[in-house]
Amino acid sequence: MFVSVILDPGAIESARALNEILISYGYKKKQRSCWEHTAVSEDRLIALKKDIDRVTDYYDTVRIYQYPVEGVMAISELTRKKWRKMLMRLAE
Question: What is the mean pLDDT of residues 32-42?
Fold first, then answer.
C-alpha cells in the first residue's frame, strides 16, 4: 500500500527521532514534513506506528495517509499520545 507520513513535532529531539525512524523504514522525504513509501505491508505499518509512539510525546502530531485500506483511503492521526483512524468513503 502507499503510505504518506506528515510530521508536526513539538521539539527538535522528536523531529530527529522521527526522521531516523522513517529513514530506517525506507521512507523518502518529499517535502519538509512529508515522507512517502510506495510499498508498505500492514505488519510493517503497525511496527512503524509502535516506533513512532515510542519516541513522541504529548505535543507531537503525526498523520499517516494510507491507500488502499479496504478499498478506500485511511487517515491515522497521533495527537496528544492517542491514535485515531478514519476511513474516507464516497458518499452514496
Answer: 96
